[in-house]
Design a protein that fits this description.
It is found in: Membrane. Belongs to the tetraspanin (TM4SF) family. The protein has a two-stranded antiparallel sheet with strand order 1-2. It is elongated and about 65 Å long. The chain is 78% helix and 4% strand. The protein has one domain. It contains seven helices and two strands.
Length: 186
């Protein structure tokens, strides 16, 4: 990784770190931090593993494509970023369109989770509830989201700008390589 540009190196390391933390969470915590009893595979560990893997693969495509000046890898990097961007936009739109349904499902999942709280075979869930439930749950989360919506929006905009810059730079380098007539060397 010594020939990689510094920002891309950090991106790859962040992806590796997220992947490692996700695997550690999955192995050490089991079902701890399952977001929804109706979707048991939707846990913090699985989300971190998925995000880490996506960041690593995307960073690898961008790094290798830029270093080797490979048009195919740069185009792949652009397409992966475009797919991620479109998926984020679709999820955002669906969240706002179905926000009432999301709220109802969250309340029901919290009730279902409380029913599982006293079971002996689900210590991870009990620990998660003990950490999270120092105060009232659903209203507190809604209040926190409402209080921090500007921060969350800012973080989302920063991520959007970084994605758009990555797409712009990959296309700029792609067209530069295309104009200079470089061919792929095996």
């Amino acid at each position: 990784m010594s020939g990689m540009p510094q920002p891309r190196k950090r991106g790859m390391l962040c992806g590796c770190g997220l992947l490692g933390v996700g695997i550690w969470l999955s192995v050490s915590q089991g079902s701890f931090a399952t977001f929804s009893p109706s979707f048991p595979s939707l846990s913090a560990a699985n989300m971190v593993i998925a995000i880490g893997a996506i960041v690593m693969v995307t960073g690898f495509l961008g790094c290798l494509g830029a270093i080797k000046e490979n048009k195919c890898l740069l185009l792949s990097f652009f397409i992966v970023l475009l797919i991620i961007l479109l998926a984020e936009l679709i999820l955002l739109i669906l969240f706002f369109v179905y926000s009432d349904k999301v709220s109802e499902n969250a309340k029901q999942d919290l009730k279902d989770g409380l029913a599982l709280y006293n079971s002996e075979n689900n210590i991870g869930l009990r620990n998660a509830w003990n950490i999270i439930q120092a105060e009232g749950c659903f209203e507190k989360v809604e209040e926190w989201l409402d209080d921090n919506k500007h921060l969350l929006g800012t973080i989302g905009m920063v991520i959007l700008v970084v994605q758009l810059l990555g797409m712009a730079f990959s296309m700029t380098l792609f067209h530069h390589i295309h104009r200079t007539g470089k061919k792929y060397d095996a």
